[in-house]
Amino acid sequence: MGRGSLISSVVGGAVCIPKTLSRKQKKLLDWLDDSKKLSAPVREELAQAIQDFCWTGIGEATKAEVDEMNVHYASLLALYRAFQQLCERAGLCAVSSDLFLVMDGKAVIPDFRQGIQRAIIKGDGCSAAIAAASVIAKHHRDSMVKRMALEYPGYGWMENMGYPTPAHLKGIRELGITPLHRKNFKKVHEQLKLPLA
Q: For residues 33 and 9, what is the distance between their CA atoms, to the nearest angstrom?
């Protein structure tokens, strides 16, 4: 989550849903959808429920890593870290070739030797595990950005989560960039009329 945001880290989520679920748990999973389509309160409630009865992992790639390797590879790194955390929490051997990892999008984790992986475009619409991972990752990142918004007012982050909305771009023009801004993002440089580094 946060690939298109102009600030801070990108976040990946990983979820392993148990084979046996109660009726109430199954009903909760019926709410799963593209996390961006859900309201923040629904996402928060779902994220808590998912973490209560599923094995989960959250991984981050820092702003410095986004700047260094680009947002695409940083996102895959965040996803890998989320997967590693899930394996640790679930007591899974992360080097087992029996593991099967599905993820949203077109790309898979490079040099992944810990099982089989498959990328599914719009995967959150056809896999409950992908949709659940998206929900917990978005909730985690939104909570993180809301804390940052208190430290850096004037950019509208509480509402825009660091994405390039008119309020955020106006903030950059008037206040400049913060240490949290991704220095290699074109939108940041356009607002400051600077060439890309």
A: 23
Q: Is 136 exposed, middle or buried (0-12, 13-18, 19+ CB in 10 A)?
A: buried
Residue boundaries of the structural domains of the chain: 10-141
pTM of the model: 0.89
Comparing CA positions, the residue from 116, 120, 117 lying closest to residue 106 is: 120
Q: In Å, how far from its chain's centre is CA 165?
A: 19
Reported as a single tens digit per residue, the pLDDT across 76-89 is: 999 999 999 998 98
**What's the topology of domain 10-141?**
Nucleotidyltransferase; domain 5 (3.30.420)
Measured CA to CA, the distance from residue 65 to residue 182 in angstroms comes to 10
Q: Say which residues have a Cβ less than 8 Å from residue 48's Cβ, sequence separation at least 6.
A: none
Q: Could you report the per-residue pLDDT of 120-177, keeping only the tens digit for each?
A: 998 888 899 999 999 999 999 999 999 999 999 999 999 999 999 999 999 999 999 9
> What's the rounded Cα separation, in Å, for the pair 16 and 57?
9
Report the chain's C-alpha Rg in angstroms: 18
Helix boundaries (H) for 58-160: 63-69, 71-90, 128-151, 157-160
